[in-house]
Structure formats: structure tokens, C-alpha cells
Please model this.
Amino acid sequence: MSEEAGRKPARVVVADDQTVVREGIVMLLGLLPGIEVVGSAGDGHEAVELVAELAPDVVLMDLRMPRCDGVEATRRIRSEHPGTQVVVLTTYADDESLFPALRAGARGYLTKDAGGDEIVRAVESVLSGDAGLSPSIQRRLLERLSEPEPSSAPESAPAADAPDGLTARECEVLVLIAEGLTNQEIARRLHVSTATVKTHINNLFAKAGLKDRAQAVRYAYANGLVRPPTR
Model:
């Protein structure tokens, strides 16, 4: 008997909040060699519960889901059930999706245009202790590693010292607003989508009670996040 024939199929749970997408992934996986789908979940909370109940080898995890998103579900699974690996399968490949998922413990990251063979390779890779990353994600990681380190100048305050509970990223966005950058320019500077920038702006405006960018600039100066140029 060959090694392939003697190997047990990987037991997989699929987590995706879109029913049509989830059922399609389950159907696709059912046709692939070496994979057995043992359950499917409609959100991250349900995914964590299924892992506790079924102890699968791998969870194919969407990121943007209600109640408990994929990043938090990944963090809980890797903390509470370390025998289960997580491979992200998502539409999004921006930095704001990729890096939090990897930091949470995901060992693989694929976008939903991945083919069946690519999914099988990713599952096999994470089960053998390797990373299961699509070629585009590998390129993005290499690009990120080759980028210069962000400036350590005192224009932006650490989150621990930030006013009104602003996060480090929200402070960063606020500083760039104060520099006069548009949303599109901020997105390019931070390597994220414009929609992500808008979300950060909405959050920081709500926390700081700001109504417009002019108020944001005054707020940034008043709180020492940026300083007037020296003469």
C-alpha cells in the first residue's frame, strides 16, 4: 500500500457566514483527495464550538463574519485547541486582514480564487508543520519584509499614551490626516484599502468627538500627536 493510500484524510471544518459560499466550499472539498469535511460553521463563535466538539485537524476560516470574526476565532482555537490548525480562506488579501490573522495563529492564508489543488497543498503543509500560503500572499510578505522600517520620529504617540483610547493605527491615520493626506494617499502609505482607512477615520472621529478633518488636525496638535515645525 502506498503512503498516499495509507494516509488518513485530513478532517476539516469550514467556517464562512455566506451560506452559498460555505456550501460551495464544502462541495468542492468533498471532491478533493485526502480531505474529509466533518462540519461547517456560519460564524467564528460556531467554528470554535465545532472545534471543541469535533477536534478537526484543520479549520478553513473566513475572516469577516458576524458575532465572532475569523481573527478572534483563530486566536481562540489556537489557544484552546492547539491540535487544530487554521487556514484562512478569504476574499481579502490586504495587510489589515493578513497580518492580524497570522498573528492570531493562522498557519495558512489563501484567497477564495484558490483552486482545489492549492487548498489541498495548504492543508497538507500546515499539518506537516509548514506554512500554507498562496503565492500572492508569499509575495506580499516578502514585499512587507523588504519595506523600510516606519519612522520612529515623535509625530505619532504609542497607543498606551493615546488620548480617548485611540489605537496605534488610529493615531497613525490621524497624523497622516494632519499632514494633509487624502484617504487614497493614506491607504497607499499604509498599504491598506481606502475602505479600511475610512473605517479607522470613522472610529477615531467617534472616539474623539470630531466632526471633520479640520477638527482632527487641531485635535492632533492639541494632544501632541504632531508638533508644529520648528524654525
